[in-house]
Write a structure and sequence with these properties.
Mean pLDDT: 92
GO molecular function: aldehyde-lyase activity; metal ion binding
Order of helices and strands: HEEEHEEHEEHHHH
Strand order of the largest sheet: 3-2-1-4-7-6-5
CATH architecture: 3-Layer(aba) Sandwich
Largest sheet: 7 strands, mixed
Strand content: 5-15%
GO cellular component, one term: cytosol
Pfam families: Aldolase_II
Organism: Knufia fluminis
Distance between the termini: 17 Å
Protein name: Class II aldolase/adducin N-terminal domain-containing protein
Length: 288
């Protein structure tokens, strides 16, 4: 992992990139594990991601209980337990992103499963689980959908483990799942580094948008049968109309795994573009 100074500069850029791509707005957050002390993690204090501009904007927290290392630390995000519990459970996680991207939210509320529909979000795999905080509320919990304590954060972290590995010994050092949807709330993803976590956040939203548009297009196209634009009209001379009549078909497990393997080696390409985009926008300041 990079040294602390470089890492904080990158973390500032991550905040800006996530805002630029409408993954976060005034809400949502990204954190990184401390490069010199794995029992600590770093994230912005309670401010909008687009306005993070300096290392002074960050707070260092204990992984053990999400408490600030410094007693006089500024106010932090309520939901820092999302981050602390994922770092606590998985030693290979070095960055966590939590967001409420509008493109993704329908899949956290509608019961329609989110699946990878093209190669770049192959990291989604064959299943994107939905975690429901309402199933673990106790009589004293505030029912505001926010992850407010270690118990709730630990439950969310557990959803990143596939059912067959829940009791594995030793416990898995990295999550089986790259993204977990949070019912009526948003989603959380992670990475071995900042760049990968941001890539996954951006392309989770892109995939959701493409999947939604595909469903809308399919329904609209199917509704054209009475207007002279039936499916049969698209049949070519060889009768090859299967491409227009097939059912929804996400990536297979093999395709998703192969795509992720290929994409993981190219993340520096979009990252370089995204950094240039936010550096050119006067809203964002990076004094790292």
């Amino acid at each position: 992992m990079a040294n602390l100074t470089t890492l904080l500069t990158t973390l500032i850029s991550a905040n800006h990139i996530l805002h630029y791509h409408s993954i976060v707005d005034a809400y949502g957050h990204v954190s990184v594990r401390h490069p010199d002390d794995a029992s600590h993690f770093i994230m912005s204090g309670n401010r909008a991601p687009a306005l993070v501009s300096s290392p002074d904007d960050f707070v260092t927290y204990q992984v053990s209980n999400a408490s600030a290392v410094e007693p006089d630390a500024p106010k932090g995000y309520i939901e820092r337990y999302i981050h602390s519990e994922i770092y606590k459970r998985f030693v290979d996680v070095n960055c966590v992103v939590h967001a409420h991207a509008p493109d993704v939210l329908p899949y956290a509320t509608s019961g329609v499963p989110l699946r990878p529909v093209f190669h770049l979000p192959g990291f989604l795999g064959t299943e994107v689980p939905v975690w429901d905080i309402e199933t673990i509320y106790n009589e004293t919990d505030k029912h505001d959908m926010l992850v407010r304590n270690e118990r709730q954060g630990g439950s969310l972290a557990g959803m990143f483990v596939a059912p067959e590995n829940q009791t594995a010994e030793p416990a898995t050092s990295a999550p089986d799942r790259r993204v977990v949807l949070m019912r009526k709330h948003g989603f959380t993803t992670w990475g071995p580094d900042i760049e990968t976590a941001v890539f996954r956040a951006v392309f989770t939203a892109t995939n959701a948008r493409v999947q939604t548009d595909s469903a809308l297009l399919r329904n609209a196209f199917g509704g054209m049968s009475g207007s002279g634009m039936s499916m049969d009209a698209w049949e070519d001379a060889d009768g090859q109309d299967a491409l227009y009549n097939n059912d929804f078909e996400p990536l297979t497990a093999e395709q998703a795994a192969a795509a992720q393997s290929s994409n993981d080696g190219t993340i520096d390409r979009p990252w370089g573009l995204w950094v240039a985009e936010v550096e050119a926008n006067p809203l964002y300041k990076n004094n790292g």
